Amino acid sequence: PTPAAAAAAVSAAASAFVGARGLGAATGATGGAGATGAGDAASPENDSDDEEASMQVMQTDDDGPRSAADRWKAVRHKTRLCFSRGSISWVQLAGHAGGFVADVDPAWILKKANEFEKVALPRLAGDALGPFTPQLRGTVRGDDGDYLQMENLLAGFVDPCVMDCKIGVRTFLEQDVESTKLRMDLLEKMLALDAAAPTALEREQGVTKLRYMQYRETLSSTALLGFRIEAIRVGGQSDKALKKVRTHDQVVERFRYFLQSRADVKAKFLERMADIRAALDKSHFFATHEVVGSSLLFVYDSTGKAGLTVIDFGKTLARENPLHETQWDATTMNHADGYLIGFRALETAFREA
Predict the structure, then answer these.
(1) Kind and range of the H or E run holding 274
(2) Phi, psi of 21 (to 5 degrees)
(3) 145 φ, ψ (degrees, to nearest 5)
(4) How far is CA 81 from CA 29, 60, 107, 213, 302, in A?
């Protein structure tokens, strides 16, 4: 491609990175550039139903419809053209690497499929909450498993400011509580946050995921307020010093930084939050699912265009009578996600920002 076309493709691909879980942007850094992504998605097993779905979303060209394999080769080829050389690279703000791939069409992204999200997004399509979630186009089969072809939530924005807020009093599945595996990698993460946090025995053996996650959530505002700021990007700069933003006042301060005194944008976000809250009250999906680890993705640009979307359903489970206004109890395993606790606390703090 021409330099201008390549730059446009990379910009679109970097925007696509945000779509459903993490946050990314294009920068002018030199050196070898590599595509990165985010999400806790696991590779699902392939089956005939997935093959049919992937065929349904194949784009067509002058030569007629592409096969699933040909489309995936085209996606990989374009991504490599964009990122194998040149001066632009992705900058990841949140999540695990490897979860996203740029689609050929910049209006869409490819997110590594997660079985929970593959079930949740189609159900949301016809639900009251559906208009506030990413549109799902279908499934594409890749070399390493299935990918969800999802709406690119940054399409149409110019150099946007982006913020990801994770909602709920718990960000991990209860099945993680049952694991007693001691992990040295999580111990290292705990030590990086506070060298005095692990016990002497934990320093020797490692810590469980439950131990790390509960500790992590007491450092952030998750345990105290029921939500946390996962990542912020403003003016091309990433705010990564968020893990210990814990109190209401600290959260309000970071919201002010994100808004950059844009009262018009703040008003649009507050209106959108009110609409989402009303949709949650009417939503059959919300009334029948435990929603863990989901986020609100805030996006705006210098033109005043703003978007707020409920994203990431990779830890959403069908649950009879879910507890959205209750604190989680590890002893009774009460399935509470405390989603509304966090949503209301976020709305209150945002209003004060």
Answers:
(1) helix 263-282
(2) -150, -65
(3) 125, -170
(4) 17, 21, 18, 38, 30
Q: The whole model's pTM is what?
A: 0.74
Whether the Cβ atoms of residue 170 and residue 225 lie closer than 8 Å to each other: no
Cross-strand bridge partners of residue 289: 318
User: Measured in whole angstroms, how far is the alpha carbon of residue 142 from the centre of its chain?
Assistant: 21
Tokens representing residue 23 in the block: 């946050």
With vertex at residue 185, the alpha carbon angle to CA 179 and CA 191, rounded to the nearest 5 degrees, is 110
CA distances from 30 to 80, 87, 127 (A): 16, 5, 45
For residue 348, give both structure tokens.
């209150």
Per-residue model confidence as pLDDT tens digits over 20-74: 333 433 322 222 222 222 333 232 233 333 332 222 222 333 444 455 555 555 5
Tens digit of each residue's pLDDT (9 = 90 or more) over 95-137 = 445 578 887 788 999 999 989 999 999 999 999 999 999 999 9
Q: Tell how strand 237-239 and strand 316-318 pair up.
A: unpaired
Residues in the chain: 353
- Rounded Cα distance between 339 and 225, Å, is 11
Round to the nearest angstrom and report the end-to-end CA distance of the chain. 44
For the record, the structure tokens of 231 come out as 């990542």
In degrees rounded to 5, what are phi and psi of residue 306?
A: -140, 145
Helices (H), 17-103: 48-56, 68-83
